[in-house]
Write a structure and sequence with these properties.
By secondary structure, the chain is of the alpha/beta class. The protein has two domains: 1-83 and 160-223, Rossmann fold, CATH 3.40.50.300; 93-158, no CATH class. It contains six helices and eleven strands. It is globular and about 45 Å long.
């Protein structure tokens, strides 16, 4: 594939008269670890949701892996076909499912056979050091364990791109540093293409090989 792995070209998203993202262009190469840095309310989460296909752009184009996935008013490729992992700010673990069942739900939804799913889940939980907690429900986990479970769910589908929406913002400083180091280790060992949005400069410095500052909905600047 020639060109960037992800390309946003003059992408705009409005809610009523307010522009959450306006005329934003961004290229991300395969294997890059990008951190989008900016204050709350500047459009960081909206940007991730546009990339994931959870929102439709009001203008512009989004390309992923050389494929046009969204244009003005339309998502051409639905979220489940984009091969993305997404770690939400509130984690969004399904509370009635165990850790293993959370992962299995993702794999079953894309039609993987049961035997393949079992192996993939075991490998992924080992990767994030959660194998011993596979049969616990989210409410039985500590904050850090819940973060690891959410990361495992994002990784289990072997995504081509993983999106992080400030998943460590509610953690105490020591746990935040430990999990930040863990995510950095996984990014490097798996050669993940990733986009991590945050307002925290320490997160940005620790996790990025490229930092992009987003302004109030209307563009980006390299640091």
């Amino acid at each position: 594939m020639s060109g960037p792995f992800l390309r946003l070209t003059k992408v705009t998203k409005r809610y009523g008269t307010r522009a959450a993202v306006e005329g934003l262009s961004l290229d991300v190469d395969a294997g890059q670890r990008i951190v989008i840095l900016g204050p709350s309310g500047c459009g960081k989460t909206t940007l991730l949701r546009l990339i994931a296909g959870l929102e439709r752009p009001d203008a512009g184009e989004i390309w992923l892996g050389g494929r046009l996935v969204a244009v003005r008013g339309r998502n051409l490729v639905p979220p489940h076909e984009r091969r993305l992992g997404y770690v939400f700010q509130d984690l969004a673990l399904w509370p009635h499912l165990t850790v293993k069942e959370n992962l299995d739900f993702v794999l079953e939804s894309v039609g993987l056979p049961r035997a393949v799913r079992a192996t993939r889940i075991r490998e992924t939980l080992t990767l994030v050091r959660m194998g011993a907690l596979a049969h616990r429900h989210p409410h039985e986990l500590s904050g850090g364990e819940q973060q690891r479970a959410a990361l495992a769910r994002a990784l289990v589908g072997r995504p081509q791109l993983i999106l992080f929406d400030e998943p460590f913002s509610s953690l105490d400083p020591d746990l935040r540093v430990a999990l930040r180091e863990e995510v950095g280790r996984l990014q490097r060992s798996l050669h993940l293409t990733s986009i991590y949005v945050t307002h925290d400069r320490e997160d940005a410095t620790a996790l990025a090989d490229r930092i992009v500052r987003i302004h109030q909905g209307d563009g980006v600047a390299e640091e």
